[in-house]
Design goal:
single chain, alpha/beta, Rossmann fold, 5 strands
Length: 137
């Protein structure tokens, strides 16, 4: 169980949930159901939303993109709309580490997780290096 009552969902988790051919698909579905059972408040960022939408549209087509967007609009997942403060802090962190292995979208997720005191539902293990609690472990 995540250490926080809030969890941010990353692109890798969203994609694994939607793509039945993703190697983490079944683990993602099981993990997502556990998060719901534990009554976690689920979040994503507007940057992850854009990144995930582009990935789904490119790889899986518009029909699955439409399904994804409609499910988000149902209110199960809250969207943290990234403002200039979060964006600039994420960029500052990225520059400080000279890029590291994380993208700007990832750094926005790190900064957002810190602000929300949230864990992160992801299959991207690079987040662990930044001290973020990752689920599944």
């Amino acid at each position: 169980m995540p250490s926080s009552k809030q969890t941010i969902i990353d692109t890798s988790a969203f994609y694994a949930l939607i793509s039945s051919t993703d190697s983490f698909h079944y683990q993602a579905r099981s993990s997502y159901e556990r998060l719901l059972d534990w009554e976690q408040k689920l979040w994503t960022t507007s940057y992850v939303l854009v990144e995930t939408s582009a990935l789904i549209h490119h790889r899986l087509g518009f029909e699955l993109l439409n399904t994804f967007m409609e499910s988000l609009l149902s209110g199960v997942v809250n969207v943290l709309w990234v403002d200039s403060l979060i964006h600039h802090e994420a960029w500052r962190q990225m520059v400080k580490r000279q890029g590291s292995r994380l993208s700007l979208v990832d750094w926005v997720t790190v900064v957002s997780a810190e602000r929300l005191k949230a864990s992160l539902f992801t299959f991207d293990q690079d987040f662990r290096q930044e001290g973020i609690t990752v689920f599944p472990p």
